[in-house]
Specification:
single chain, mainly alpha, six-stranded parallel beta sheet, three-stranded antiparallel beta sheet, 4% strand
Length: 842
């Protein structure tokens, strides 16, 4: 829950943000010294977060003490947030869920990874709140929390059964109750009263274990059983359990108390015990009440009948709470069973019965999450299920609907941009599915395609290409050329070829993929539109911007005809951003700005400012503003986008590097040459870590660096950089390409700066001729080449030719960019224009 406040006296200050903390136990007893020690340790922090850990055996009350601390000292905090920590993926998701209350983009719009990182950064800075408490519950392995324990001015509290925390943080060991605490607890728990003598006898037999005392108190409350009778039954049950050699990791007192509660529950309401057994095969995290709301094929008659009778189901759930066998959160509509109780329930069942119940839990999860994972409105449902996948052993299930559930979970993690978790999830399922079904099974091949897509998003192009090619070959052989998995792998193959710099072959494959999609799905289908978007990207990479624009406009018309902007905003934003980029590259800067502003606003509204798709739209908008001459806004947005990329993806991600290129270009444009040079030089050094050395992007970015070298006084170095870049681009793309001709124009300026005027003229005038044929007479890059050729002609004394070309170029500037554009002013002043490059997404 978010911003719902705990049940405290109205005079007591409550946190501004209070989330996911379990209900306070009205029977909480004792622990005064431990709570005081914990409070003193946390309150005395001075300069940095020092995590404190409550550690001890299962059932001693670590979680309840953390809950009590949160409620008792809530007035000292602005934020109190509870984080299940027994699975790493849940930690990230829980951190991410704090984003929106902190005023940050939610995980639904920015992705789990981005949202979690933003939360950690906000906590570190203490903005907007410096008084915060984060509780990591059931953190078994210290290593798993290394990267997610927040720093900053707040407090961190950890509960764990692992004693190794004692050597890492300030640890507070939790033991069983003292006898006085046990007696006090039972006196509170049994409202009809229990004598001190009976409470003492009961505590003695139960070993003062809080969870066992809770079970005993609940049973007495519900049944009114006399303490003497309970103790007699407890002795009998303990002897029986010991004679059966029960596992030593469960306290015998807890096992016996649990067994008595279960026996009484079975007698009172057998279906409640059935429900408990199902709950034992979920994870120890809260189980959505709606997981028991749908009858799906494969359920036992007993469970089916229970689900079909909501009154009986509600009563069964209530009995679990009354017997202290489950914790019920009524507002959140969840059921939570302690992991120790789950283990005891499972161990009482024959192996065959365990497998049956586990499988039905898989079916329940599949029925609960039968929703489109691409739709952000369904992401909370997937998140509620995520914590149960590993404990329930979903990976081992071979039922088609459960396999589909797993595949949909991968799609959810991918769509929400939680790429690291998605990769780990896919790898764990791949190992299991390959072992049980074989490497060529359809589901395994599907996962392999998903993994390749994730690797590509993480910038690991070589590994993605190798894995995807193997998958494509296997899919074509096993599934056929037109199977969905084969076609997705084929699209992936084209993306891998683009990443390797082979734009021509990528285009050929994308055209073939589009043909197959149109044949199979028709023109109005998301698969077809995504394939057509890839083809448009290919045309753009070949400098054919008019065709690319036509294709993208067709895609967007199709999407809007079915209101697709609402049903799949991420894909729509991706398509729309592609159109903005194509319009800009085609030379219409004003229209690119208008479209770019609209698409960026759409991205912020629908997906948030830190979504992958929104960031790409923002980067392209900053470039469009720069090209149009709106330098102030271009610089501000370029800096903002680049900072976000560095924080979210690190320095060596392809999108981060592209954002750095855009920022270096605008800094050069406004005269911040030294800052631009440092950034461009660093980026050029990093690019070969992502792309092959001969990739066109490496050469084109080296051309950007060459411009800065010349501007800052090293024309000879600039010449060498540009000559190498042009030679590399010609090998990959030929001379008649936008990238190549950009570098050629700049190389001509290098030659002019070195006094080689004739060579400069030949290169520049030749490039002008090629640009007119490639991009048209009025394209801004064509006009730049014309402007520089005018300068070369004047330097050579060929004034008549220079004047004629000047007049023609002036007229074209007037009709296209206008004479007020910065490029036109440079031209009119008789100075040379520099061209630059911005790498499109692969």
């Amino acid at each position: 829950m978010i911003k719902s406040q705990p049940d405290v006296p109205s005079t007591e200050r409550v946190p501004q943000i209070w989330g996911k903390v379990p209900p306070q136990n009205k029977n909480f007893t004792g622990r005064t010294d431990l709570l005081a020690r914990l409070r003193s340790g946390l309150a005395n922090q001075v300069t940095a977060v020092v995590p404190h850990a409550l550690h001890g055996l299962g059932g001693v009350g670590k979680t309840q003490m953390a809950v009590e601390y949160a409620y008792r000292y809530q007035s000292d905090y602005d934020v109190v947030w509870w984080i299940p920590a027994d699975q790493p993926v849940l930690v990230r998701s829980s951190l991410a869920s704090l984003a929106q209350p902190l005023g940050l983009p939610s995980a639904a719009v920015s992705g789990v990874e981005d949202a979690a990182n933003a939360v950690l950064d906000a906590l570190r800075r203490g903005e907007p709140y410096s008084k915060w408490l984060l509780i990591f519950d059931n953190a078994d392995e210290p290593e798993e929390l290394t990267d997610v324990l927040p720093q900053g001015p707040g407090h961190v509290l950890i509960t764990s059964r692992n004693h190794r925390w004692a050597g890492i943080v300030d640890a507070v060991p939790i033991d069983v109750f003292t006898r006085e605490e046990s007696v006090e607890f039972l006196s509170k728990r049994v409202p009809r009263g229990i004598t001190s003598e009976d409470a003492d006898r009961l505590a003695e037999e139960l070993g003062d274990l809080p969870l066992a005392l809770e079970q005993a108190g609940a049973l007495q409350t519900e049944t009114g059983i006399a303490v003497s009778e309970y103790l007699q039954l407890l002795t009998q049950r303990t002897s029986q359990l010991l004679s059966q050699g029960k596992p030593t990791e469960y306290p015998v007192s807890m096992t016996a108390a649990w067994a008595l509660s279960v026996a009484s529950l079975e007698e009172k309401l057998p279906e409640a015990l059935d429900l408990l057994r199902y709950c034992a095969f979920f994870g120890p995290e809260p189980i959505p009440r709606d997981a028991f709301s749908k009858v799906v094929p494969g359920l036992s008659p007993q469970l089916r009948n229970l689900i079909e009778d909501p009154i009986r189901l509600g009563r069964a759930i209530g009995e679990l709470g009354r017997f202290a066998l489950a914790r019920l959160d009524i507002p959140a509509r969840t059921i939570q069973v302690h992991r120790l109780i789950q283990a005891l329930v499972r161990d009482e069942l024959p192996e065959a019965e365990q497998e049956r119940l586990r499988h039905e839990v898989h079916l329940l999860l599949a029925g609960y999450t039968r929703l489109d994972p691409n739709d952000a409105g369904n992401w909370n449902t997937y998140l509620n299920s995520l914590g149960h996948f590993e404990p329930a052993g979903v990976a081992r299930c071979q039922a088609p609907e459960v396999r589909e559930l797993a595949l949909n979970m991968v799609t959810y993690l991918y769509s929400s941009a939680d790429f690291p978790s998605a990769r780990s999830f896919v790898q764990s399922f791949l190992d299991e599915w390959t072992s049980t079904s074989g490497a060529d099974h359809e589901d395994v091949l599907n996962l392999q395609v998903q993994l390749a897509n994730l690797l590509r998003e993480l910038g690991q192009y070589d590994e993605a290409a190798e894995r995807n090619l193997e998958t494509l070959n296997a899919a074509e052989k096993v599934l056929g050329h037109d199977h969905d998995t084969t076609l997705r792998a084929l699209r992936g193959r084209a993306a891998d070829l683009r990443a390797s710099g082979d734009f021509q072959q990528a285009h050929e494959i994308d055209e073939e993929t589009l043909r197959r999609y149109e044949s199979k799905f028709g023109e109005k289908d998301w698969n077809t539109w995504r394939a057509m978007n890839s083809v448009a990207l290919d045309y753009g990479l070949k400098s054919d911007y008019p065709t690319a624009r036509t294709r993208l406009e067709k895609v967007l018309r199709g999407v809007l005809s079915i209101d697709g902007a609402s049903s799949d905003p991420s894909s729509y934003l991706n398509f729309y951003t592609g159109l903005v980029r194509t319009v800009r590259l085609g030379g219409d800067y004003s229209e690119a700005c208008d479209l770019g502003e609209d698409v960026y606003a759409f991205g912020i509204e629908k997906l948030g400012p830190e979504s992958t798709w929104t960031l790409r739209a923002g980067r392209d908008l900053s470039i469009a503003w720069r090209r149009a001459g709106d330098y102030e806004r271009a610089l501000e947005l370029a800096e903002e986008i680049q900072q976000r990329y560095v924080r979210i993806y690190g320095l060596d991600h392809p999108d981060t590097l592209a954002a750095a290129v855009a920022l270096a270009n605008i800094r050069r444009t406004i005269g911040e040459f030294q800052e631009a040079l440092v950034l461009a030089d660093d980026t050029v050094r990093r690019y070969p870590r992502i792309y092959a050395a001969e990739h066109p992007y490496n050469h084109a970015c080296a051309g950007n660096l060459a411009v800065l070298r010349r501007i800052t006084g090293d024309p000879e170095i600039a010449r060498k950089l540009n000559e190498d870049a042009l030679a590399g681009l010609e090998v990959k793309l030929g001379r008649d390409h936008h990238f190549s001709l950009t570098v050629a124009i700049n190389l001509a300026s290098d030659l002019a700066a070195l006094g080689e005027t004739e060579s400069a003229y030949r290169l520049c005038s030749g490039s002008l001729r090629r640009l007119r044929a490639l991009l048209g007479d009025n394209h801004p890059l064509t006009l730049s080449a014309a402007a520089n050729t005018v300068a070369d002609l004047r330097a050579l004394g060929r004034d008549d030719e220079a004047t004629a070309l000047f007049d023609d170029t002036e007229e074209r500037y007037l009709r296209s960019l206008t004479l007020d554009h910065p490029d036109a002013r440079v031209f009119l002043e008789g100075r040379r224009l520099d061209a630059d490059f911005d790498p499109p997404p692969i």
